[in-house]
Automatic annotation (TrEMBL):
Protein name: Oxygen-dependent coproporphyrinogen-III oxidase
Family affiliation: Belongs to the aerobic coproporphyrinogen-III oxidase family.
Listed Gene3D superfamilies: Coproporphyrinogen III oxidase, aerobic
Reactions it catalyzes: coproporphyrinogen III + O2 + 2 H(+) = protoporphyrinogen IX + 2 CO2 + 2 H2O
GO BP annotations, alphabetical order: protoporphyrinogen IX biosynthetic process
Pathway: Porphyrin-containing compound metabolism; protoporphyrin-IX biosynthesis; protoporphyrinogen-IX from coproporphyrinogen-III (O2 route): step 1/1
Keyword field: Cytoplasm, Heme biosynthesis, Metal-binding, Oxidoreductase, Porphyrin biosynthesis
EC number: 1.3.3.3
Location of the protein in the cell: Cytoplasm
Source domain of life: Bacteria
Binding-site residues for a divalent metal cation, renumbered to this chain: H94, H104, H143, H173
Active site feature: H104 (proton donor)
Subunit structure: Homodimer.
């Protein structure tokens, strides 16, 4: 188990994505290093009011603690009370143009230890797409890149992690998906450390090819106030999921993480409406009928 190798990859991945997104947007990320009193720290790279990204962030964190928070041990109760080391890269991009989708990606590594016992390690991560106006070719492209990232490791991973993503990014209180999914997985320690680490590397390395072509295709599409209004309404679902269900947000807050970095994922402009429904046959209604349905995008 080479923890230093994981950290080096994550830092390189953060810088690669930041540099590429600066090329696409034309604006610069604000880089902010921070330390955590309980141990560890990180680097937050945030863009606000860019040329195309209304808000975006690419965060690296490497933190230590005496007790795993409930969000990390909920599925592994035998690990409760162990000290932990956690590191990862997490990003969210909220474009201004309503025809360009929001995207999220995360890759992370945990080690839980206690005296006299073998360390327990695992990886987690994934990426998912949240459109406001759906395009089938975008959904197919994004899922194809997700599949490509996993295919060299096991043919069963993409359908399994795609289903996991559909089930995880689901707002139970709304009975609807957050977006069109992608892949999601946790507690990954298959075969050996190098195998699992290489899989995480592949997921991270496929992110830009999954998202940038979609952003570049949609970010200059003409739009009006109607589209912006619907985008703000749908962004409300993003906020609801992150604050109520997201394990990464809960872990960060429960472990005493840096609030500014944890809540970087929130969209800058959001609206809620009481009992609103899209007009039948409208482009807004099509998002619900054709895209927010847990569809199999790859034949």
């Amino acid at each position: 188990m080479d923890i230093l190798k994981v950290k080096e990859f994550l830092l390189e991945l953060q810088e690669l994505i930041v540099e590429r997104m600066e090329q696409v947007d034309g604006a610069k990320f604000h880089r902010d290093s921070w330390e955590r009193p309980e141990g560890g720290g990180g680097i937050s790279c945030v863009m606000e009011e860019g040329n195309h990204l209304e808000r975006g962030g690419v965060n690296f964190s490497h933190v230590f603690g005496q007790n795993l928070p409930p969000s990390a041990s909920a599925h592994r109760p035998e690990l409760a009370g162990r000290n932990f080391e956690a590191m990862g890269v997490s990003l969210v991009f909220h474009p201004r143009n309503p025809y360009a989708p929001t995207v999220h990606m995360n890759v992370r590594f945990f080690v839980a230890q206690k005296p006299g016992a073998e360390p327990v390690w695992w990886f987690g991560g994934g990426m998912d797409l949240t459109p406001y106006y759906g395009f089938e070719e975008d959904a197919v492209h994004f899922h194809q890149m997700c599949s490509n990232a996993l295919r060299p490791f096991d043919e069963s991973y993409y359908p399994r992690f795609k289903k996991w993503c559909d089930e995880y990014f689901f707002l139970k209180h709304r009975q609807e998906p957050r977006g069109i999914g992608g892949i999601f997985f946790d507690d990954l320690n298959d075969k050996d450390f190098d195998f699992s680490f290489n899989l995480i590397e592949s997921v991270g390395d496929h992110f830009l090819s999954a998202y940038v072509p979609i952003l570049e295709k949609r970010m200059n599409t003409p739009y009006g106030e109607r589209e912006r209004d619907f985008q703000a309404y749908r962004r409300g679902r993003y906020v609801e999921f992150n604050l109520v269900y997201d394990r990464g947000t809960l872990f960060g807050l429960q472990s005493g993480g840096r609030t500014e970095s944890i809540l970087m994922s929130m969209p800058p402009i959001v609206k809620w409406r009481y009992d609103w429904k899209p007009e039948e046959g409208s482009p807004e209604a099509k998002l619900y009928s054709d895209f927010l349905i847990g569809k199999e995008w790859l034949s």
